[in-house]
Every structure is written in C-alpha cells, then in structure tokens.
C-alpha cells in the first residue's frame, strides 16, 4: 500500500526529433515520492528536465510516459491544491501587492467576506516584510519585493503542495538570503509540502529535508535522494559550523561536477525501483567521493557507473 503524499512513477519526457533526427528523451524512468510536510529541493544541470517535472506536477505540462499521483488521485491539470512560484514573479501588473494576494485568497475561499480576505492577505504580506508597501503595484516594487509578494500569495492560499521554480534565481545574494529566511519562517509555521528547483547548493542545504540529484540530460534520471540531517531551525551562519555541513556540501558538489555526467542511465535502470538511491553524506560510506563507482545502498555491494563519452556536462 502506498502512503506517499505525492508519487511520480516512471516518468519520461520525449520530443520528436527534427527531420531525420532521432527523438529527444529529456528524462526517463523518473520515480520519486514526497512525504507530507517535507521540503524537497531538486538540483541538476541546465536542461535535465527539472522545470518540466515541476510544470507537470503543477498540471501545466504532461509527461510523455508515467504517472503522477497526489493523495491517491492522479494529477491531471492545474488545481488549487497546488501552488506555483516562478522565477519571474508572475504577478498581475495592474493590481497592487495586496490585491495580488487577495486575488489568490479570494479564489481559494470563495465564502470568505472582504474583511477576512484582506486580513489573511495582510498577515502573509507582513510575514515577508511588506506591510508598508501593500498598496504599490508590481512596477513600483523591486525584484526582491515582487518575489516576496509571489511567495506571500502562494503560501497564503495554503495549497497542499507548493512548487517553487528557482524563486530566487534573479535576486542578488543579500536579498536572496533575507527571503530564504522568510520562506523558512512561513514554512516552519504552515508545514506545507514544498518541492523546489534551485541551482544553489547552499540554499538547498539550508532549506531542504531531502535533495534530489538529477543526472545530466539527455536521458536524465533522478539518481539520488540526499538526506539533510542538519537540525532545525537552521540559520545560515550557524549551519556551516555543523560537522555534517561540509560533508553534505562536498557530496553535492562532487555529484554536480563529476558524477552527474558520468552516471550511465542503463546502470541506474538495472536497479529499477530502488531509485532514487537514499544517501546520507554524513554517514561514513557516503563521504568518500564516488567518482567512478558508488555504493549501492540496496544490496551493500559496489556498483560501478561507466562513464559515457557521448554525454555532455
Ligand atoms: N518543444 C521542445 N522541443 C524540443 N526540446 C524541448 C522542447 N521544450 C523543451 N525542450 C528541452 O527539454 C529540456 C528540459 O527543459 P527544462 O526547462 O525542463 O530543463 P531544466 O532542467 O529546468 O533547465 P534549466 O535549469 O536551464 O531551467 C531542455 O533540454 C529543452 O531544450
């Protein structure tokens, strides 16, 4: 019996090739589960299919093969139980910050009166530090402020699953840090299930319970699920002092720099439903970088991943 909150089963995305060219398989045999209330980040090189997976979970795209199930029901199109935050804010430009949030809240709770919708919307805008600018339109806000409105709107509607596609990608490091803290604050309070794309290893370690690692495309796979066992609440300045921090960080960087390009999909598929392999880099076995071989957590013997010369990084 399946107790996963969200389950993606054997997903693939293919595009027909141009005249005479073979079809493009962006990713294949992608399977994973999300537990209720967990924060999962997904990392992988550009083009491996992260946004396609996220957009499919949002109901805005479709896999070529495979299935997605949330609380036992197949995901088939967009729904209010899933909220999305994109990198480019996607606010309605003719509405103020408050009206943008109210718009989402009103759609979610149609029986609420105006005062309740406003009060609830203001509560979330305050949590992201925008109390004093709620009447400004998006054009009158900085990029960081706009992204805060998007985050307030997404969390205020309390979707069961929040999908964040590189929400801080366009922000400077300082603003990014501040909004990460706000995101942690809201998530700690509401404990919604979050699935987030990021290219930033430190951001993923700060936020996630688990980090999914994708191999390079084409024919990418979600190869590993790395457990982040740093205690919460986490603070940027503090977690770097934790003895596990650099073990985790080095493991992730080694994957992205070396192993993501070397893993052979055929090898991963041989192990079928065991993937993504659960890894805890803080444990002894995982700390040694596994460049040409890695340890199979399922049967306790070494399995080598043959470098594939044709794969690009
Ligand atoms: N219509 C299409 N025809 C052919 N290939 C496509 C089409 N749409 C998308 N792709 C390819 O699908 C792949 C996956 O794209 P996707 O945006 O999901 O990757 P990503 O991992 O999110 O990348 P990034 O990190 O750069 O955002 C890319 O290589 C892209 O070129």
Describe the protein's architecture and organization.
It is found in: Cell membrane. Belongs to the ABC transporter superfamily. The chain is α/β, with parallel strands linked by helices. It has one domain: Rossmann fold (3-Layer(aba) Sandwich), CATH 3.40.50.300. It is 34% helix and 22% strand. The strands form three sheets. The chain has a seven-stranded mixed sheet, sandwiched between helices. A four-stranded antiparallel sheet has the order 2-1-4-5, covered by helices on one side. It is globular. The two termini are 38 Å apart. The C terminus is likely disordered. Adenosine-5'-triphosphate (ATP) binds next to strand 2 and helix 1.
Q: How would you sum up the major sheet? A: 7 strands, mixed
The ordered string of helix (H) and strand (E) elements is EEEHEEEHHHEHEHEEHHHEHEE
Architecture per CATH nomenclature, i.e. the level-2 architecture? 3-Layer(aba) Sandwich
Q: What radius of gyration results from the CA coordinates?
A: 20 Å
Structural class: alpha/beta
Give me the number of helical elements. Answer: 10
Tally the beta strands.
Answer: 13
Q: Total domains, how many?
A: 1
Distance between the termini: 38 Å
Helix content: 25-40%
CATH homologous superfamily - what is it? P-loop containing nucleotide triphosphate hydrolases
Q: In one word, what is the shape?
A: globular
**Small-molecule components bound:** adenosine-5'-triphosphate
- What is the CATH topology classification name? Rossmann fold
Q: Could you tell me the strand content as a percent range?
A: 15-25%
Mean pLDDT: 86
Cross-sheet strand order for the largest sheet:
6-7-8-3-9-10-11
Q: Name the CATH class.
A: Alpha Beta
Extract low-pLDDT stretches: 287-313
Keywords: ATP-binding, Cell membrane, Membrane, Nucleotide-binding, Transport
GO molecular function, one term: ATP binding
Membrane topology: Peripheral membrane protein
Family: Belongs to the ABC transporter superfamily.
